[in-house]
Every structure is written in structure tokens, then in C-alpha cells.
Write a structure and sequence with these properties.
The chain is built from 4 helices and 17 strands. The radius of gyration is 18 Å and the shape is globular. By secondary structure, it is an alpha+beta fold. The termini are far apart. Helices cover about 20% and strands about 35% of the residues.
């Protein structure tokens, strides 16, 4: 549903947003139709809480749907815990959890991945940087540049965004490795995507294991049922 609202105080731009399976609307200021304007809105006090907004090459997508637990939230928690543990133990760089605003100016992209990793070398080389905070210089709200790694876990409302739009946008943004995980059906699809000349390509699993060049490890995603009957994900590492 496209929304255009004109009042004496504020003008809002058309935007498509979703809450669950129902299309609805959210007020986005007219200034957000440019990438610079969107970035300013995203770090402002006017940005609505609990809303995930994405700017991809001029298109604004807003997702207000709550996360499914088994196919998204539990899985995101497991992946974040394992990768954060590796990053911290090996002192590889910085891990950014869900909700971190990531921007790449060349790709006209601003989004909030399910998780992000940036190596110390990427910070040292200038591939990535944190913008200066407003009230506290070192307390930034935005990471700018080309992260080493991002992960997106597909939800019902994000299939097109994660599998099509972000797949291209993350490549254009110089992301080295993109993990794309779809657990919406009984057959879990875990793609570990690496860069080729024209786009991302999925590496072939070896006995069920996917090897990451970013983390120099192989990973395998498994699941079982816990004592309460809920799914328990395990990101195995070797």
C-alpha cells in the first residue's frame, strides 16, 4: 500500500511496509527519499522504535512484523553467539548484533543485518568506519563501509529483500561473505555466499560442512528438539 500524507507540518513519502502477512503503512519523512536523508532520519530521535527500515538504491522497505521464534529468533541467537565467541576469543575485530545500522554509500544501501562482522584490518585500512556520535563522539549509531561478513535469516516478510535485493546490494557494497539462511520450511537452506566477478556464488558443502574464508573455519547447521519440544539450533564449528 502506498501512502502519501500531506499536512501543514510534515510531508510523507510513499513507502511499502509489512507487519506479518498484512500490508500496512508507516510515516516516513519526505526527506528520506534520498540516501543522505534516509541516513539522517535513521539516526534521529524521530526514527520509530521497533521498526526495521532499509534503503536499497532508492527503495525504502519497512518491516514491523514480529520475529518467529523457531525459524528466526532462536536461529539468530545461536549464530550470533557462536560467531561472537569466535570473534572475541580470537580477537578478530568487532561483532555487531541485530539492530546495527550499516551503510555503504557506493551501493546506496542502509540496512540492519541480523548480524555483522568487521575485522580489525578493515577498520585500519578504512574499508569500514564508525560515524562520529552527536552527543558523545565515540558513541556512534552507524557503521559505514564494506563489512567482512553479514548474515540474514529469511522471514516471511523478507524473502524478496534478503534473497534478491540485499544479495545484489551486499555484493555492490563490497561485503566479503554473505550467509543467507532460510528456515521457513522443514528443509533448511544455508547458503554461504562468497564473491565472484559478477556476484555472490554459493560454495559447495563438503560432507555437510561449509568453509568460511572470513573465519577460516567450517560450519554446519543442525537442529533437534529440546526438553520442552521446541527447536534447538546448533551452529557446529571445526
Amino acid at each position: 500500500m502506498d501512502l502519501v500524507s500531506n499536512t501543514a507540518a510534515t510531508v510523507f513519502v510513499p513507502v511499502t511496509c509489512y507487519t506479518g502477512d498484512t500490508e500496512t503503512g508507516v510515516k516516513v519523512p519526505a526527506t528520506a527519499h534520498t540516501h543522505d536523508g534516509f541516513r539522517a532520519w535513521a539516526v534521529s530521535d524521530d526514527f520509530p522504535q521497533g521498526v526495521r527500515a532499509t534503503f536499497i538504491a532508492g527503495e525504502i522497505l519497512v518491516d514491523m512484523s514480529p520475529e518467529y521464534f523457531e525459524s528466526h529468533n532462536f536461529l539468530k541467537t545461536e549464530i550470533s553467539a557462536v560467531i561472537y565467541g569466535i570473534v572475541r576469543q580470537e580477537k578478530l575485530g568487532r561483532f555487531f548484533s541485530d539492530g546495527a545500522l550499516i551503510t555503504n554509500e557506493a551501493a546506496a544501501l542502509s540496512c540492519e543485518p541480523d548480524a555483522t562482522f568487521v575485522s580489525h584490518e578493515s577498520f585500519r585500512s578504512g574499508r569500514c568506519r564508525l560515524t562520529e556520535g552527536v552527543s558523545r563522539p565515540n558513541d556512534s549509531k552507524e557503521l559505514v563501509g564494506s563489512p567482512d561478513w553479514v548474515v540474514e535469516i529469511v522471514s516471511k516478510s523478507s524473502v524478496r529483500k534478503d534473497k534478491q535485493l540485499l544479495r545484489k546490494a551486499y555484493f555492490d557494497a563490497g561485503v566479503q561473505e554473505y550467509w543467507l539462511i532460510d528456515a521457513l520450511s522443514d528443509q533448511v537452506d544455508f547458503e554461504l555466499l562468497t564473491r565472484d566477478n559478477a556476484g555472490f556464488v554459493a560454495i559447495e558443502p563438503q560432507d555437510g560442512w561449509l568453509t568460511s574464508t572470513v573465519f577460516s573455519r567450517a560450519f554446519r547447521l543442525t537442529q533437534r528438539r529440546d526438553a520442552a519440544g521446541y527447536v534447538e539450533w546448533s551452529l557446529e564449528v571445526k
